[in-house]
Amino acid sequence: MSQTMTAWLQNIAASKAKSPMPILSFPSVQLLGVTVEDLIASSDLQARGMKAIADAVPSLASVSMMDLSVEAEAFGSSIHFSHNEVPTVVGRIVETQEDAEALAVPDLQKARRCGLYIEAIRKVCGLITDRPVFAGIIGPFSLAGRLMDVTEIMVSCYTDPELVHKVMEKTTAFLTSYAEAYRGTGAGGILMAEPLTGLLSPELEEEFSTPYVKKIVSAVQTENFLVGYHNCGNNVPSMARSLFGVGAAFYHFGDSIHLKEMLEQAPPGVPVMGNISPSGEFLGGTPDSMRRAVYRLMEECGRYPNFVLSSGCDIPPKSSWDNIRAFFSAAEDFSAGKAL
Known about the structure:
The chain is α/β, with parallel strands linked by helices. Helices cover 50% and strands 11% of the residues. The chain is globular, with a radius of gyration of 19 Å. It has helices at 5-14, 28-32, 36-40, 43-56, 70-75, 97-102, 112-127, 140-148, 150-159, 161-183, 202-208, 210-220, 240-243, 259-265, 278-283, 287-301, 321-335, and strands at 62-63, 78-80, 88-90, 133-138, 189-193, 226-231, 250-253, 272-276, 307-311. A hairpin with a 7-residue loop joins strand 2 and strand 3 (88-90).
C-alpha cells in the first residue's frame, strides 16, 4: 500500500460507500478443500486461504482468523483440536498466587504455533498488496481467563484481585511482544479480541482490563501499525467510555450489542465495525435473510460516517459461501440505493 495506515483509517470516515470488513478467514477451508486442523497447522495454508478470500470478495482489509487458543498454548495450556472446529482451551494452569508467580512469560522463539501464525502473516503480506492485512490476537484479560478458567477469574476479581493482576502482568508482557512480532511482518495492524471483559461490570473492566489493553496499544501502535479492539460481551455498552479510552485505532463489536449505541458514544472519526451475526446469518441464515439483516443494520447505522459493516465476530468455518457473497452484494446494493 502506498499510504500510511493512519491515512487509510482517515479515508474510511471520508468515504461514502465503504467496503465491509468482516472477520473472514476460517471459511477459507472450503476454498482450499482442507480441514480447520490442517489450516491451523500450516502457515502456507493460512496465507493461501487469506489470499483466496481476498480474491473472492471486495473486503476493506484482510483479517486473520481469531484462534483464541494459540496464546494460552504458548503458556502451557492444553488445547483440544478437531478437524472442523476452532481449537479450544482445556482446563486451567493457574490456581494460586504461587502458580501466578511461577508462570513464565513465553519465549516467542519457542512458542511453535505463535511462530507459525506470525510466519503466515509475513507470507500473506507478500500476496495481498491491494488492502491492509490484520493479524488476530487475544486480549490480556481474555487470555488470563483461559489460563485461570473463565468462572474462576470472575470470582477472583472479587476474592483475590492480587492474583488476577499478577496473571495480567504476565499476559500483557507476552501479548506486547507478540504484537511487536506481527508489526515486523509488514501487517497493517492487529485486531485484539477481548470478549471476556464484556462480562465484567464497568468498574471491574476499568480495573482489570483497560490499563493493560492501553499498555499494549501504547507500546505497539504507530502510524503504520494499528490496533483494533474487538468485544462481543453483553455489558459493552455500559463500559463504552472506558473502552473508547484505551486508544485503539478502531473498534469492532459483536451481535449481542446494539451497535447504534456504540456509534453514538464513539469519538468522532474512530471507525466502529459490526455486527451481522456469525452464527445466525453467516452460518445459519440464507442469502435472503442475510440481505434483510444487512439492510436493517445499514438503515440504522449507515448515517454515521464512522460505521463500517462487518460480521459480529469471527465467521465460522462451515459458513455458507452463498451467505458470505450475499453479505457483500447486499452492502453494495444498499450503497447504490437499490431496494430491498
